[in-house]
Design a protein that fits this description.
Largest sheet: 7 strands, mixed
Structural class: alpha/beta
Order of helices and strands: HEHEEEHEHEEEHEHEHEEHHHHH
Number of helices: 12
Strand order of the largest sheet: 3-4-2-1-5-6-9
Length: 416
């Protein structure tokens, strides 16, 4: 297997993009060179870094989701926060924070799902950089759950646009962070001056554990590759009053609630005979978040074949069946959620359809809707493939339509 050189490694080999420039860096503790040096340290030592930016969860990844990130300091540099819940203006740099910057370097590890907010933060930075004429250099990193498998519907238009659905992307998009940057730059106006520093040695078929790179959890609850594999599906539980295992040692790998029957739930799910997954009866007690300190009865999701497993379809069917087992106790999350103007589940799924079917439809109707969403998703393929930097191989999804009917929906600052 060829050694993978990350974008940061390539930049350090040839730093001409940042030489003699005033540089700002958007990154966090998890972005490292292939040899284990933190990107922030490597760049501070290699060029004139004048400012740092941190995404959701903060530079050290010690801030919980939906909590404000405060400004911080690292090696005598101020770390400006790009995440706050009081105003959507907190999701992007202020004009004055980029006006004195020649190059904004971005090195963030994405998780492969549209909801993961680091890509939206990058897109917001690109929008401001277009105004200040600051060049944006994105250092590419692997998609940890491979660059082939695509799943889930699109977010195309308001009112479903939010910080967890800011661009017309499938839920599981199969793009790297650099490819996401190229895609976003093509779908918002005006585009910025963008350069993506490619990796060497990465193949689209690779899962993270095939890269020989060490896993550093990119956010507090993304502790393992196993978590990343199920996350594109089980993040949907954030839109409900069902626990997704947050507050346990296996977040997103568990699902349940105090009022469910774990044996019945597991047997019901297993009878669906879903590809690549089995469900084990499981009880757990979250230490925080939903149902804190209460015993939740549910299932543990055991992926048996990750290439066959479809996390989004699986989680949607789980939510439907868990709701139908105890409909009087099931609720949708109506609290503040990533500047969405619709309920959280609609922001996550990109429409009101899923919510409507869960409430009043049958499982068969849900299956049909999921299949239809897969077809509607193909509208994005030409633009998505244009953004790709790495060979797709024989498993490529065919291009079916152009993007002429897809609006530019990069969220302008102050309107997220």
């Amino acid at each position: 297997m060829p050694a993978i050189h990350l974008g940061i490694d390539a930049l350090l080999e040839d730093p001409s993009l940042v030489r003699d420039a005033r540089v700002a860096v958007l990154t966090n503790y998890a972005a490292m060179t292939r040899s284990g040096i933190r990107t922030a340290d490597a760049l501070i030592d290699a060029c004139n870094v004048i400012r740092l930016f941190a995404p959701e969860h903060g530079f050290w990844g010690d801030v919980a989701y939906l909590e404000d990130v405060s400004a911080d300091e690292y090696r005598d540099l101020r770390i400006e926060s790009l995440y706050g819940t009081k105003s959507s203006a907190a999701l992007a740099p202020r004009i004055e924070q980029l006006q004195d910057v020649d190059v904004l370097v971005v090195d963030l590890q994405d998780a492969g799902a549209r909801y993961y907010t680091y890509a939206a933060t990058l897109g917001n930075c690109m929008a401001v950089a277009a105004q200040t004429r600051t060049r944006v250099v994105v250092l590419d990193r692997p998609n940890p759950i491979n660059g082939i498998d695509v799943e889930g519907s699109l977010v195309l238009a308001r009112p479903f646009v939010s910080f967890v659905g800011q661009y017309p992307l499938p839920i599981r998009h199969a793009l790297t962070i650099g490819e996401l940057a190229r895609f976003m730059n093509a779908t918002q106006f005006p585009p910025c001056d963008l350069e993506v520093v490619r990796m060497r040695g990465w193949k689209r078929t690779m899962w993270w554990d095939e890269t020989e790179l060490g896993w550093v959890h990119p956010s507090p609850n993304m502790a393992t590759l196993d978590t990343a594999i199920v996350y594109p599906g089980t993040c949907l539980f954030e839109g409900t009053n069902l626990s997704e295992g947050r507050g346990t040692t296996h977040p997103f790998e568990l699902a349940g609630a105090p009022w469910l029957d774990e044996q019945r739930l597991a047997s019901t799910m297993n009878r669906l005979d879903l590809a690549g997954v089995a469900f084990e009866p499981f009880c757990f007690r979250p230490m925080f978040d939903k149902h804190a300190k209460e015993r939740c009865h549910g299932v543990r999701i055991r992926v048996t074949d990750r290439n066959a497993f479809r996390p989004v379809r699986t989680a949607m069917l789980m939510i439907k069946l868990m709701r139908d087992l105890r409909p009087a106790l099931f609720e949708w999350n109506q609290k503040f959620y990533e500047f969405a103007t619709v309920p959280a589940i609609e922001a996550l799924t990109g429409s009101s359809d899923f919510r409507t079917i869960v409430e009043g439809g049958t499982r068969v109707e849900l299956e049909e809707w999921i299949a239809d969403a897969e077809q509607r998703r193909l509208v994005i393929e030409p633009h998505r493939q244009e953004a790709m930097l790495y060979d797709v191989g024989p498993r490529a999804v065919p291009m079916t339509r152009d993007m002429t009917d897809v609006p530019s929906i990069g969220v302008p600052m102050g309107e997220a």
